[in-house]
Design brief:
Helix 4 crosses helix 5 and helix 5 runs parallel beside helix 6. This protein has a 6-stranded mixed sheet with strand order 6-7-8-3-9-10, sandwiched between helices. By secondary structure, it is an alpha/beta fold.
Length: 242
């Protein structure tokens, strides 16, 4: 079997810098020379304190923003200079998102919420329903498709959000503080579910967190402090030196 090389990477960031303009003139740089690759099937935690630049890094990875300089390749394609419409297409076709606050439509049913990204792809209704029901079954919510999000617990809402992320059959899921709105028991269950998805389906998962106890569920840690990577490797035994 051929060994995987850098050319097989799902994500490749090379020399990524990001600055934001200041209201009174000038700019503030928040990312400095970020370099890493992520291979298919990895479960990676990107961790750092508030203001470290981890969320900005996630926005670039998720094609929600573009770097000031450097090169970002997704599935071998340079997406650095794409237009907003082109980036939207990349997001819809390749990436599933899971957010801290679930981002569900409160007045639409669970089934409708899961079908939403499929509508943007222009899939016929019967295919949308089939895929959405399949994903709801995968997350254990097949009996709740007619419920509204307001009728669900926090953990159930996050499972709906995961089903929605999976409905488009992405090879990559970006999870931004996915347990931040959950209690510790529900958070543990969601993280165990991510591990199972990664193991059973080989989905690449990138999880953004500021907590080491959350990051430990991943297999690799990228730690960012003051806009720079200060650790990239296996999960350490503790976070004393991060």
């Amino acid at each position: 079997m051929r060994k995987k090389s850098a050319q097989d990477a799902i994500i490749s960031l090379r020399g990524i810098n990001k600055s934001f303009p200041l209201e009174l003139g000038g700019e503030q740089q928040v990312l400095f020379d970020i370099n890493f690759t992520i291979m298919p099937g990895e479960f990676v935690a990107i961790m750092g304190p508030s203001g470290s630049g981890k969320s900005t890094c996630m926005n670039i990875i998720g094609a929600l923003d573009t770097p000031t300089s450097g090169t970002y390749e997704l599935y071998g394609r340079d997406v650095t200079g794409l237009t907003p419409d082109e980036l939207a297409t990349v997001r819809n076709e390749h990436i599933g998102f899971v957010f801290q606050q679930f981002n569900l439509l409160p007045k639409r049913s669970v089934l409708d919420n899961v079908m939403l990204p499929l509508m943007y792809r222009g899939l016929p209704m019967d295919e949308r329903v089939r895929r959405a029901r399949e994903m709801l079954k995968r997350v254990g919510l097949e009996n709740f498709e007619s419920y509204l999000p307001t009728q669900l617990s926090g953990g159930m809402k996050q499972r709906v959000a995961i089903a929605r992320a999976l409905a488009g059959e992405p090879k990559l899921i970006l999870a931004d503080e996915p347990t931040g709105a959950l209690d510790s028991k529900m958070g543990h269950d969601i993280l165990q579910f991510f591990k199972q998805l990664n193991k059973d389906l080989g989905i690449t998962i990138i999880m953004i967190t500021h907590e080491f106890d959350i990051a430990k569920y991943a297999n690799r840690l990228i730690h960012i402090r003051d806009g720079k990577i200060n650790y990239d490797g296996p999960i350490p035994r503790n976070d004393n030196n991060l």
